[in-house]
Amino acid sequence: MSTALLIEQLLNGLQLGVMLFLMAAGLTLIFGVMGLINLAHGSLYMIGAFACAVVASATGSFWLGLIASLAAAAAAGAIMEVVVIRRLYDRDHLDQVLATFALILIFSEGSRWIFGSFPLYLDIPPLLQGAVSLPGGGQYQLYRLAIIAVGVAVALGLYLLISRTRLGMRIRAGESDREMIAALGIDIQTLYTIVFALGAALAGLAGALVGALQSVQVGMGEPVLILAFVVIVIGGIGSIKGALIGAILVGLIDTMGRFLLPKTLALILPAAQAGMVGGALASMLIYIVMALILAFRPRGLFAA
Amino acid sequence: MKKILATSMLSLALASAAYAEPVKIGVITTLSGGGAGLGIDMRDAFTLAMKQSGNKDIELVIEDDAQKPEIAVQLAEKMIQSDKVDLLTGIIWSNLAMAVVPNTVAQDIIYLSPNAGPSALAGANCNANYFNVAYQNDNFHEAMGQYANKDYKKTFILAPNYPAGKDALTGFKRFYKGELAGEVYTQVGQTDYAAEIAQIRDSGADSVFFFLPGGMGISFMKQYAQSGVKTPVMGPGFSFDQDVLGAIGDAALGVKNSATWSKDLDNDANKKFVEAFKTEYKRLPSIYAAQSWDTANLILAALSKASVKDKEAFKAALKAADFKSVRGKFVFNNNNHPIQNVYVREVVKEDGVLTNKIVATAFEDHKDAYADKCKM
User: Do A15 and B194 touch (CB under 8 A)?
Assistant: First the structure.
């Protein structure tokens, strides 16, 4: 095993983690401020990807598509909040899960209705095509490096937004005492809609960025949603810092597990079997880690 | 009162038997989620064939399994117990077929597979109620293993961790004589292949063989094309079929892949099928559509010979396979799996649309490796 391979895999883990952070940040923000479990967060991710693919193929510009994905996901999030979610804040989590699950079905069937069941085409912009050389003689896909950069920038931006701005102050206040900031005369309804739209836009951004790497299709959001939930449970529900650490942890563990487990098992088993057993174990690994973390820290690493 | 009702119902039942018998066919396939493209092609070709036959006695019960084994099992139970279907068909994925087929054929219901052909059902566990109209899972991969001997000595192989994935790599290795640079099993439904591509880069392979149907293949090819790895790829037709080519884009151009069918296969049944499908749905058919079209026409041919209620006669009629296959010659082996040619195709661009054309024949009248173990 060469150093170049190890560096490449570490970057892969980091890239997956950063992408998960974009999803998990919105999810944990919405839970922290409004106490809402939003299963339809994966649908917003899908909306972002579809908006980007449609606009990019119509205009020929990925960048316009990226802007469209932010706008479409934020708009869908805001509409969702005003029409449906707003009625759910006072209900218990079971009602919220039921209603947002219904939203998943509506969004999925709706997009199938409009775009059909076949995957859409979305390509990486020419500027970010190809691979770059890494120290150690390896190569790495430029676009994935760009995703890491976007993720780091978003994490930094969120930190500044929440710790340095008036909106951030209100979000923090909303997290610690919802009734009190309403009593202080802050328009809590608008605040909720803004937070929801912000979370949605981040999910849409993740969808668009990843859509160019994978396939843009109906139901693409749900597998990511499950991982994003694992991330916020590990990180501590409601904590942005927890989401960041949790996301990178999950990204690294998943990638390294997929890569190292079959290799390790190959020392004691025949290659084909090691591949199968290692692959199966690797797919369980993050859930095992989650169970272990919860056993020692039931409220996650950075519980609010 | 009860007695009168029972008698009148009985007489009603007798009266209806005098007319042509209605036939109920249950279709369980994947119409939602990442694998939906495959199931929709299957369903569309099947319903089109039924429509074109003009047979009014056939009733279809079509349900979506969402690519989940537990849902497929429930649907099969529902169709057998409450819809009382005469035949079942439609399943795309081998893990779903493994969950549904053994139990279905044990209840003496005939199952016709339009796609999945897991090895476990082709050998010692073959069954007189199970007809595979598509292929045994290993077949496409065996063909590519054979063809790879020509150019390659050190291949990296990759497939999802489920029955068809294992059959795929087993099939490839059965005929491939070179050395393996690596053998990796990925998760079913996986969308990011960065970790696997890194291993390919590091392995020093001279070629990559991968079996990743549906959305998995799209993701892999797009990421592979951008990764800077220049090792040539090849695969079974599933990784480069009509349902995914559009989304992969030009990265697929020139790639060799193996299949028992291609839209340029020169026979009348195939020309008719491709035209009819294009006219009805405004897109090119995939291999899943072709196999499903054959399944429908096999059923129609058998129905014209025997009643579906007379199980033994109907099975004999199915086994005779007296229909015009879009794959040309079509014969069932002793284990009710087809004996057929397997071709090597190349991805080309025709009128701006990516599609496949046949460049070689890997096997003629190819039989699967499990038929000997089947006591039928």
Answer: yes
